[in-house]
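Record format v2
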Amino acid sequence: MAGQADVTQRTESSSTPGAEPALSPVRAYLLNCGSSSLADRAFGILMLLCALSIFAIVLLILIELISGSKLSIQKFGIPFFFGSAWDPINGNFGALPFIYGTVVSSILALIIAVPLAVGVAIFLTEMCPAWLRGFLAFFTELLAAIPSVVYGLWAIFVLIPLLRQYVNPLLIKTLGWSGIFAGPNYGIGMFAAGVILSIMILPIISSLTREVMSAVPHAQREAVLALGATRWEMIRMGVLRNARIGIVGAVILGLGRALGETMAVTMVIGNRPEIVRSLLAPAYSMASVIANEFSEASDELYLSALIEIGLALFIVTIIVNALARVLVWAVTRGAPVRGT
Amino acid sequence: MGVEIDVSDLNAWYGTNHTLQSISLKIPANHATALIGPSGCGKSTFVRCLNRMHETNPIGRVTGTVRVGPTDIYAQASPVEIRRRIGMVFQRPNPFPTMSIYDNVASGLRLNGFRNRKILDEVVERSLQQAALWDEVKSDLKKKSGASLSGGQQQRLCIARALAVDPEVMLMDEPASALDPVSTAKIEDLIFQLKSQYTIVIVTHNMQQAARVAENTGFFLNGKLVEFDATHKIFTNPTDKRTEDYITGRFG
Amino acid sequence: MASTTAMPPPLRAGASNRFLRVVMNHLATVAAVGSTILVMAPLIAIFFYLLVKGASSLNFAFFTQVPKPVGEMGGGMANSILGSGILLAIASLMGVPIGIAGGIYIAEYGRNKRLANMVRFTADVLNGVPSIVMGIAIYTLIVVPQKHFSALAGGVALGIMMIPTITRTTEEMLLMVPLNVREAALGLGVPNWRAVLSITLRTASPGVITGCMLAFARVAGETAPLLFTAFGNQFWSTSVNQPIAALPLQIFVYALSPYDEWHRLAWAGALVLIVLIVVSVALVRYVAGRGVLKGAS
């Protein structure tokens, strides 16, 4: 074991300012500072409480929504979600037209946006020159950040006239036989809502798909290339196949965003609570009916019905978003996701 | 004014990895003690146990006794007071990037609430002189940021910062390994100057460095302390065969 | 997760097959480039249309005058700008400290703990909840008991939207501070709370601040939660307990109105919002690109 070096143990100071065996002012001060364990513990608890506020917020929303919709739940029960009559005057409320509107406009948005978003993501990740990529990525981030009401403003004055004048007549002429594009061409309506939604969710789906694709290790790409694959085959087998779970997650996230989108949809959907076959007819979404009618709801039951719709929207978007996050996390391993 | 460090049956774990096994030794006051050994032998972990830095790792665990002077450092709950009495210099220089040179050196005092401007000025100057950095930076103490210095200067800044709180012990974990030979020489000179005033423990993988600066040397291998003796004896006539193998370069 | 390099279908050598594969490759490239152009061109067009239309509608009066009565020309959205300012001040007062503190917790105290993971996950999910739902919750919580709309209710609604965003960005930025720097503080015997605030947070502060700016810009454009909390106000108001105007809210109302003059104001307001967005996004990218921790090893 260790031998002892020959050392006499002295502990006097000889070098501190003041030059006496007593403690220097610095050392004296620090020895008197005391333990900070109380302050440290208090600080830790304070930080913890603030972190817990996230849960408190979710609980708060849930509690307020449930208590607000109690009246409506008691009066209508489950059939509320299947009834298609929305009659505030006679106190008869059914949420089906809004559910239909929300679902159809969102699915329409996905049909338009997903292929395009994935195409953009593939281009940006695998084919784009570096200088262009930075600009396009920045632009995509910008577009994802533009407020809903601004998209709505643009939609009213640019998109709707465009649809009414050029796109809708074309659709009526070619697909009118199916009944999906038929009837008076107002411009506003389900189709317009679907289009503006697709524009709004495209940047998110694209960004997330890009992140997920970038997370696929290069080794995967190289392995496929080494077998003599073309670039497209490399993308298909080496990247998309591995990232497909995450891409599904990105799509579901886009769906979640579309389901809850309020202002732009309210401004173009037409606000008519009717279920009609034609996509060119005015429609109504869950978020829109709340936005339009909440502050004018004249009686308790009316308000309660609207809050119940809000509750349904809350629960659905939580589930959809949670599912999306789990899928994306599975591929990117829990790294924080930017910009969404 | 240094103190003796008395280590008794020290064991340390990283999770389930038993990194240090039953280490016992006495580090004498006012001398420099070097700790050598191959990579992964536990010498850095040992030094981090001396100022309770090992437990900052969420899976780090320590048992045993460490006495710094009269104090059993693991007997009390809060490590903060202990760390004020023990200075540490790390392998890679880590000045605080948002602070000036002056603020860096004064940080140990300021962040503990010390306010006396005049004494702070004196302490900063004294520490920078002890660290042989004063002449190089005295003209822009408050303007230059700590991070704008060269690597060697940054490390001397970290030494000054550690000295400013007037510790009883200075722990140095491979302080010169990230530096060029000129800076290394300067740091070794520093240690030579300081060791009569403080108890210095220096971890090094450079055996010549240990021979140059330290009176005593300890050899670690696989988490055990193999031999601890006067430096000249370790390097010329070691007792244990494993020590001899390491010294002669048979491994590590 | 196992990386599934399932064996690709045999790439048969054979002239016709190879030709088909090359054609597919080119088609794929065309499709990808095509969809990018199809997407980016109109989006860029939208963006510049907004800029141009907004710029032509903007004048000095926009920033200084309140709306004129219907039918009269001129007027501005000064009250909406002020109102948004007040709402955002209340929201930030609430959202920034709590958000940063939450971020500090999950970055510094909860490294591998399950609680931290749950907070992170919940914050992400909360970010995806439609903001109108927040408005409903605050309506029943504050507006109903008080029996009137108020700037306070609107500010709180926006504030709770800021918290999850700021928590996540703060965490991200704090995690970027190297362990080295934290250990230096601890090694000096600085109390943990002091080390976190004066060293770690301070080192990460450029990033944390831009994270707050991002949250700020995001809620600045939110309309839905204000519909039945702040409610809007045609007149100049600074009271926290009264309904108050807000820029996005006013844009919404004006856009749906039949008056051209109000449409002009809506475009101008939209431009102001967009400029705010562009500045924040650009700033975030600049800070992130420059490296939050200049000089830290």
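Chain A touches chain C through 105 residues (CB under 8 Å).
The domain at 71-332 of chain A is CATH 1.10.3720.10 (MetI-like fold).
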